[in-house]
Design a protein that fits this description.
Distance between the termini: 36 Å
Number of helices: 14
Structural class: mainly beta
Largest sheet: 22 strands, antiparallel, barrel
Helix content: 10-25%
Number of strands: 52
Shape: globular
Strand content: 35-45%
Oligomer: single chain
Radius of gyration: 31 Å
């Protein structure tokens, strides 16, 4: 060890020996310091950044003379010649209207001015990340035009662009340094669980429309790119600490903690490394919607079949002769977890530049561990959930090759609905509970003369708590109900959380993986006629839930996808007209191949080419998700059956046949049910409901459910973007989308016995009628495509301008709507889940006066319909204000920020069934931002 330390010491001494040290400061034309300016050796990537006072120190092994390059967002770059060791310089950067020259890469996979982008691009820079008025930079994305959030949890926000999104938005793709952040099993992004630390964000680019032509199947309604800082150019140790409180009517006032650190260093011009760590701890936005999903009043006092939206266990219900429909007493969601949220993110990367050019080799690993709540068909507590990504990438000026693996471990995650059901059953089984209820109800009426309300109250008290304060000789069939917070309740909850059998427990297991690779080459240095790119990708899904989510009870389910694309870009008419054409071919082993072409034109008018008109047409497609294909999940009242052809018979369950069918029809006590019956032997739910009301078999309609296939979209977009002579920035866009084979879910009912049909003379069809009449039926949720064509359309306008000195004012408006013919598909549920009208505004000034800055953001949305498999309802109109004030402390290179979210507003809703969003008040200190 001593020899090792001696060698390391000599190594670092050799690095520091004979170095040239350049010190100096970077200022603007008003002699004000420019923090965060990049200073690097000309022609190299290694460098440093200026501190809050604009000061910097740059060390190099080079001997003068040489040049350094100094640049910063919002200013023109400058080169300075260094002629001596230990030279001190002062660099003055000129202001530059970067709104004209801001560079984006995402729209065409090549650097281009944002004004010349062929599609709409929204962007958040590192500067805007630092100045966000939201609790986190990720939440600050909601202030971008075209972005709407679906909030399932305080730390789980799902981005919605252009509609048709629930919390599980598998129409939107999020890439972090080129890696898809989607969960391998869930197929959608879990917010920023494994994203970037705000200390490491270089930029965020968001394309709100279809992007399948370049990025493949999942970039269907939008894609976001989160790019991190390079350790060659952004070196040093940075740190932030946030403390504050959250406030919500249900949860009360609770502490909020957030901590992060970033370390980056270029050891030589050929080797650099960085590491990030963040930790967040808070209390959940507790969901406590008590409305009854079965109608009637709230609570069992006056509603024997009460089923509260955020109360679980009361979905277990039965019809009791001479009593009526009765449900068990449930547990509130807030009692089924500790409502505490934690998120730990860490990443590290090694960067090698073996040559004196842009060739770079990057190895990185990311891990996210956390607790949150996800809302799908049920409400799921993700507890000690772990997601990891490991990447190896080689890139250069004109190419990249990357491969990465995403893994996840569900940890101690569980379904809160099944937790409640099986806590109830630990005390008293369903049959025993309903027997106790029926016995107490009927005997109290017969022998004590109780009316219906008195009998119901007495029966529930006896069935729940074994309470009998009457002379009736009643014997309970189990233990009293476990009270929330009691030792018995806590013990039962822990037992069901660790049990992966949903008939007795609530745990779900997931160790699924994704293996993915990308390659891209730009021929711009080889072909001068136009800019050509070629690229491709490959992905393997490996589903491994031990049969708790998918039908993988006998081993992992694996399948592959691959794709390739080509793009040409050329300018005409003195570089005023830019044409971009691309086409992509994608193939999943489960479906036929898909072609996705895109064509666009951008015309730059005006003497300075600052009036940019764009128009584009592209097609896109979305492959069915892993759950659409291979889920096989018994949720009690219904079962989810994926529609991959080889999945239908992989799902099997045994159902209990009614006593009446056993006696009168000779049916056995139990029967097997396969998933195939959901697709080839079922009636529509609406027709079964009509049959139940009328008793007329003519009301029944066979559910003709086809196996799911890829969804298609044709997207038209036009826009105008400019910065006018008076400094007003204008961005206008409009779009029109046409969807075919729109993927959707629907519920069907399959009889336990008999064959569905309309020929009432057929004995097997008659048997299916009898099954429905006896209640011998199974509800399935199936995955298929709508037969109707759906269109969506919208437009947006964004304006921003410096109105007085450094005051920046911005405002934007978005309109979104959709249309379809319900008559062509009566059971289709659109799930657009997007407000028709949205208005956002901002006012900020980084230099209000010495060392002080501020920002205020406001958002308004009108009311809209929310539709999902968990619950439907109306989201009320909301108005939200966020604000922050910053104070720079140059002596310690720090920034103090006070921020508040949802100032003065009441708790508001974004997802029916989720907790209402309250207020967040924070104080934060960032050192060396």
């Amino acid at each position: 060890m001593k020899i090792y330390l001696f060698i390391v010491t000599l190594f670092f001494c050799s690095i520091s020996f004979a170095q040239t040290t350049i010190t100096g400061s970077v200022k603007d034309s008003k002699n004000e310091p420019i923090p965060g300016a990049n200073i690097k050796m000309a022609g190299e990537s290694a460098g440093t950044i200026s501190d809050n006072d604009g000061n910097f120190t740059l060390k190099t092994s080079k001997k003068p003379p040489f040049e350094v390059e100094v640049s910063s967002v919002g200013y023109g770059a400058k080169k300075v010649k260094i002629t001596s060791d230990s030279q001190k310089i002062t660099v003055v950067l000129a202001d530059e209207e970067t709104k004209l020259d801001e560079i984006v890469v995402s729209a065409s996979r090549t650097p281009e001015r944002i004004l010349e982008s062929p599609v709409t691009v929204e962007r958040m820079t590192a500067k805007e990340v630092k100045n966000t008025s939201s609790a986190t930079f990720y939440e600050g994305l909601e202030n971008l035009k075209e972005v709407h959030f679906n909030t399932s949890s305080l730390n789980f926000k799902s981005i919605n662009t252009r509609g048709f999104a629930t919390v599980a938005n598998n129409r939107f793709m999020q890439l972090v340094d080129g890696m898809d952040n989607s969960s391998p099993a869930l197929n959608f992004v879990l917010g920023n669980l494994i994203g970037l630390s705000e200390l490491d964000v270089a930029s965020v680019e968001l394309l709100p429309g279809a992007s399948s032509a370049l990025y493949g199947a999942n970039a269907f309604n939008g894609i976001m790119f989160m790019n991190s800082k390079s350790p060659f150019t952004n070196q040093g140790l940075s740190f932030y600490f946030k403390y504050g409180q959250t406030n919500q009517e249900v949860a009360g006032t609770n502490d909020y903690w957030d901590f992060g650190i970033r370390a980056a260093h270029a050891f030589t011009k050929h080797f650099a490394a960085k590491a990030n760590f963040t930790f967040t701890k808070a209390t959940e936005w507790i969901a406590d919607d008590r409305r009854s999903m079965t109608g009637g009043s709230i609570g069992h006092d006056n509603n024997t079949n009460y089923d509260g939206l955020n109360t679980y266990g009361d979905e277990v219900t039965t019809f009791i002769n001479n009593v009526g429909q009765v449900s068990r007493t449930g547990y509130a969601e807030k009692d089924l977890s500790d409502n505490k949220l934690e998120n730990v993110k860490a990443d590290f990367s090694l960067h090698f530049k073996p040559f004196n050019n842009d060739f770079e080799i990057i190895g990185s690993h990311k891990i996210g561990i956390g607790n949150t709540i996800y809302q799908g068909a049920n409400r799921y507590r993700l507890e000690n959930f772990v997601m990891q990504q490991t990447k190896l990438e080689v890139k250069g000026k004109n190419f990249f090759v990357r491969g990465y693996m995403t893994t996840e471990d569900a940890g101690d995650s569980y379904d809160m609905r099944f937790a409640a059901w099986n806590i109830n059953r630990k005390a008293k089984g369903d049959t025993a509970w309903f027997t106790d209820y029926a016995t107490a109800y009927l005997q109290s009426q017969i022998f004590l003369g109780f009316n219906a309300n008195q009998a119901a109250t007495f029966a529930r008290g006896f069935a729940d708590y074994n309470i009998n304060n009457t002379p009736l000789p009643l014997t309970p069939n189990g233990l009293p109900r476990f009270l929330p917070g009691s030792a018995e309740f806590k013990n039962a909850l822990e037992l069901v959380k660790q049990d992966a059998d949903f008939t007795t427990g609530s745990k779900f297991v997931d160790n699924s993986k994704i293996y993915h690779s990308d390659v891209n080459y730009n021929f711009r240095d080889l072909i001068k006629f136009a800019e050509f790119q070629l690229g491709g990708s490959y992905r393997r899904y490996s589903l491994n839930s031990d049969g708790t989510i998918f039908t993988d009870y006998d081993g992992a389910i694996e399948y592959d996808e691959y794709g390739a694309y080509a793009q040409m870009q050329k300018k005409f008419m003195n570089d005023r007209l830019k044409f971009t054409g691309s086409i992509r071919y994608d193939k999943s082993e489960l479906f036929d191949g898909q072609y996705s072409p895109r064509i666009s034109f951008v015309y730059s008018a005006g003497a300075n080419k600052n009036h940019n008109f764009r128009a584009s047409f592209q097609t896109g497609f979305r492959n069915p998700t892993t759950q659409d294909l291979y889920i096989g999940l018994n949720l009690g009242p219904f079962a989810l059956i994926g529609s991959a052809k080889d999945n239908l018979d992989r799902y099997n369950e045994v159902v209990n046949v009614s006593q009446n069918a056993q006696v009168t029809l000779g049916q056995p006590a139990t029967l097997p049910m396969s998933g195939g019956r959901a697709y080839d032997n079922a009636y529509t739910v609406a027709s079964v409901q009509a049959f139940a009301a009328s008793g007329n078999p003519a009301d029944l309609k066979v559910a003709n459910i086809s196996l799911v296939k890829p969804e298609q979209v044709k997207a038209f977009e036009a826009g105008y973007k400019s910065v006018l002579q008076n400094g007003l920035s204008v961005d206008i866009n409009g779009y029109y989308n046409i969807y075919n084979d729109f993927m959707s879910t629907s519920r069907v009912i399959s009889p336990y016995y008999g064959t569905v049909g309309t020929d009432s003379s057929n004995a097997q069809v008659q048997l299916s009628y009898a099954a429905l009449a006896n209640g011998d039926r199974r509800v399935f949720q199936v995955y298929s495509n709508s037969s109707t064509e759906i269109t969506s359309y919208g437009f947006g306008i964004g304006l921003s301008k410096k109105v007085y000195k450094n005051f920046e004012l911005g405002v934007n408006y978005n309109h979104a709507n959709f249309d379809f013919d319900q008559a062509k598909d009566p059971s289709f549920v659109a799930g657009f889940n997007t407000p028709r009208h949205r208005v956002k505004a901002s006012l900020s000034n980084e230099s209000l006066f010495k060392n002080f800055g501020f920002a205020v953001n406001g958002r308004w949305t009108d009311e809209y319909l929310w539709q999902s498999s968990f619950a439907d309802g109306t989201i009320p109109a909301t108005t939200v204000f966020d604000a922050q004030i910053t104070y720079k402390i140059p002596v310690i290179k720090s920034v103090l920020k006070l921020s508040a979210s949802n100032i003065g507003g009441g708790d508001y809703l974004q997802v029916v069934g989720a907790g209402r969003i309250g207020q967040v008040y924070l104080a934060s200190l960032t050192i060396n931002p």
